[in-house]
Records
---
Amino acid sequence: MEPEVVQRPPWYVEPNEGESISHYFGRFRRHEAVCVSSPGTLSKAAGIGPVLARWEKFRLNPVPSQKELEAIAKLSGLDADKIVQMLPPKGEKMKLEPIRLCAACYAEKSYHRLEWQFQSTVGCDGHKLRLLSECRYCKERFSIPALWEEGECKKCHAPFRSMKKRQKVY
């Protein structure tokens, strides 16, 4: 007996390992087969009100309900459990601001990691570098990951990957 092949909708976007919900839904909305540009419009299409805009800013209080997760999962073609993996584990507090990143990680794989926004995270354990919260060239704070279309500073357009040489060791 052959394993059943899962049929994905044409707008399906595979989440990256450890990717934040903010970055994922930004990528999802920019996918060529998706004609929704704002998180509010996507939330309304799923029938869950304006919650996605809050989620993209890591404002997860109240915690997304099972009904909300299933509705957005159905619309995106994802399994609700995959969306749960883009949320912080129970008991882990989120740092809403500033948005942080490890430029060395971003240079390897260009997406925002959920763990960078944990209050308990000081730096990147893999690279032993402090996380950045602003552009190392112009000092502009990073925008929410949902808006990271080009992976660069919104003010001076310096690529995030180029900032790794300016990260400090921790």
---
Amino acid sequence: MMHPEIRLRQAQEEDKHIIWDILQQAIARRKKDGSSQWQQGYPNLGTVETDIANGFGYVLTVDGVVAVYTALILNDEPAYSTIDGAWLSEGEFVVVHRVGVDERFAGQGMVKKLFDHIEDFTRSHKIQSIKVDTNFDNVPMLKILESKGYSYCGEVCLAGGIRKAYEKLIT
């Protein structure tokens, strides 16, 4: 069996509608799972457009097809400067926000693959850690972070809610 080619690349303007479709699927899934995350009009198409314009938007492609969307932001998450707890490090970091999987690729371990690619991205930029937060009730993401060796660091306040914050040191 051929292994699909999986790549992480910067999102382009022409990706924005597929990205928005993926995020709408994710918003619907969070709601179906009974989560309050992403149920207040964020993220939205404007969020995607801003991510792409700022160079934050990234897509994980499988044989050229967009499977996963995320925003990767270097050293810039004001909410992370105040944590009820403690980060593992004080240096440069990559922030992971807005992870969404196309339902055609759901259940195939795509988010775990995404995090592997984010580690490579972080290493290649010579950055020492990855920081990420998620809702208390986003069980799938909590499980992934645990399986990928992220350390629970405490709580941050983001988008009007308390989020669980995690960090992984990349050497």
